[in-house]
Amino acid sequence: MGLRSLIVGASGGAALLLGGAVLAATPAEDYAAGLHAYQQEDLIPAMQLLERAAEAGHPEAQVLLGYILDRAENNAAAMRYYSLAAASGNAEGAYRLGVLYATGEGVERDPAAAVAWMRRAVEGAYWPAAVVLARAYLEGGLGLAVDRAEAERLLRQAADAGDEPARSALEALTRDAVKN
User: Whole-prediction pTM value?
Assistant: First the structure.
C-alpha cells in the first residue's frame, strides 16, 4: 500500500491513513479509529482522530481526548473537552469535570461544583462518581456533611447496577458497622 494503511476500529469502522493524514467518513469512525490508535499507544494519530471527532461533537471522543490531555497535564484543554461532553449529557464527562473541580486542576477548586457534576454523573449511571460521593459523605469531604445513610444509598444504587468497586465499598461499610 505504500503510504496508505487501513486502521480498523473496534466498531468495525475503518479509517484510511494516507501519508500521516488520517481520513475517516464520520465522527463515530474517527472515534473508533482514534480509540484503536490509543489502545495501540499510537498517540499522535489517536489525538488527531479524537480531536476531529470531538470538534464534531462526539462526546466519547471528547472524554477520551480530555483524558489524554488531562494525563499530559494540559488541564485547560482537558477541561474544555470534559465540559463539552458533560454539556451534551455524557456522564463520564460530568464525572471527570467533577474531578477537576474537586482537585483544582485546570480550574479554581470548587467543591460545590465538584459535587454538582458528580451528582449529574450518578444520574447518568456513571458509578465511579457514586463511589466518590459516598466517600465524601463518609468523610465530610467536598464540603458535604457526614451522612452515612446517603453514602450507603449511593453505594447500594451503584452495587445494584453491578458496579464491583461500589459493591466492595458497601461490604466494607457494612463490616465496619458490625464491628462498631
Answer: 0.83
